[in-house]
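Name: Histidine biosynthesis bifunctional protein HisIE
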Amino acid sequence: MSLSAQLKFDAQGMLPAIARDAATGEVLMLAYMNAEAVDLTVTTGKVHYYSRSRRKLWMKGESSGHIQTVREIRYDCDADCLLLTVEQEGSACHTGHHSCFYRIWDEGDTRVDGEKQVDAAAIYGRQDILDAVYHVIQERRQNPTEKSYVASLFAKGLDKILGKIGEEATETAVAGKGGNPEEVVYEAADLFFHTLILLGYYDLPPERVYAELRRRFGLSGIEEKENRNK
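Structure predicted for Histidine biosynthesis bifunctional protein HisIE:
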């Protein structure tokens, strides 16, 4: 009996499917499948979903290249929800974040002038603030204004961006030599920020850097360097 034949779809012929990262166990996204999407996922090994808004079957990553390769499929006790363990190429979220669940609600959330605007510290966890800043950088790039520092750097081109990174790296080194921890933190933040602008220039989300660090994790520095030179 096929997997789809064992599942209980709702009145619209759908059921929710949760995807998690095979390497980390992190929840990546939630979408919906119909029976055809389930069957295609099983037969191709690539995750397919059904878009309720577009009323269309689609393969994850068919346009972006951010495909999901199936490693395991589980279904719950009621057979009306799937849990997919996948190898994720690139980012699962259309915003460029590795996971769609990058926002963290906190009771410290604040509203400004009645708008649903919240403090970055309240929404983003420590590990996600780089993703949040990168997202804002890309927004500034795509919707430039005269008052945007980020937009001005993009307008001046790659050499200007690289020059700022060199400048901030030097200032970080000077702060380290000076021995003031607060100055080190301040200058390192500037260096991180301008490095994110460089990543944005090449449309490289921070997840690409995270993935490279995960690849190196557990390797000695000497071993990693030797492997790089082979």
